[in-house]
Design goal:
This protein is α+β, with helices and mostly antiparallel strands. The protein has a single domain, classed as RelE-like (YaeB-like fold, 2-Layer Sandwich). Helix content is 22%, strand content 28%. The chain is built from two helices and five strands, in the order E-H-H-E-E-E-E. Strands 1-5-4-3-2 form a five-stranded mixed beta sheet. Strand 4 and strand 5 form a beta hairpin. The termini are far apart.
Length: 99
């Protein structure tokens, strides 16, 4: 059986982004209910292959940040493309996250 080789332009290596949390984000995460915190952590791990497909770039005062929706909660992060890192900056309920 002959294996097909993919063309260099079509072949993409699957590099996952590393998920990191700032101390403030960890503090906010630990204040949440355990089931909500677990769903947020699970969601962030699941988007690690390509977080830009699942998030939304923010505008105006939050330019350069990305928003990810997890139920009624929002995760604000910075995508560092050079180091393949998602830095979670803020976690909170959708009513209060942008204050």
């Amino acid at each position: 059986m002959v294996k097909k080789r993919c063309q260099p332009k079509k072949c993409k290596k699957s590099l996952n982004y590393n998920i990191e949390y700032t101390p403030a984000a960890l503090k906010q995460l630990f204040k949440l209910d355990k089931s909500v915190a677990k769903s947020i952590v699970d969601y962030m791990e699941s988007i690690s292959p390509n977080p830009m497909d699942f998030g939304k770039a923010l505008r105006k005062g939050y330019r350069g940040y990305w928003r990810h929706r997890v139920g009624d909660y929002r995760v604000i992060s910075v995508l560092e493309k050079n180091s393949l890192t998602v830095l979670v900056v803020k976690i909170g309920h959708r009513d209060k996250i942008y204050e």
